[in-house]
Amino acid sequence: MIALVSTANAQDRKPLETLKEWRGDNPNEGLAKDSPKFITNAKDLEKLWKAWDIKEKVAEIDFSKEILLVETTRGSRLNLKATLDEKGDLQPLGLATRDLRPGFRYVMITVNKAGVKTIAGKAITPVN
Predict the structure, then answer these.
(1) How far apart are CA 93 and CA 10, in angstroms?
(2) pLDDT (tens digit, 9 = 90+) per residue, 61-98?
(3) What is the phi-psi region of residue 117: left when phi exceeds 0, alpha when psi lies from -120 to 50, beta otherwise?
């Protein structure tokens, strides 16, 4: 069974292309509860990478051009897409299975930030 993580209205929204993607899992499900839904700077990305003990090198992202979206689930599978409306609101859409497993799974994607003013209605912090 698939569960929608976001309930945003897809009407009048254009899909955004996923530029880069990272997937993985972590045995400590407690780490997922405070995970950010988006990251707009390298410092916060490095902090998350270390907290989740991701073994590969920290991703190189040009935050002046891209936004990183983050989604987690306890289900066995997870996909993440994003849409943008005419007002510049980026809406992440996570699709996860409802079969709970130990730990958590994550997906992180980058999308072009051109035209993005808010994410799920929340203002984004400019890159320093």
Answers:
(1) 10
(2) 999 999 999 999 999 999 999 999 999 999 999 999 99
(3) alpha
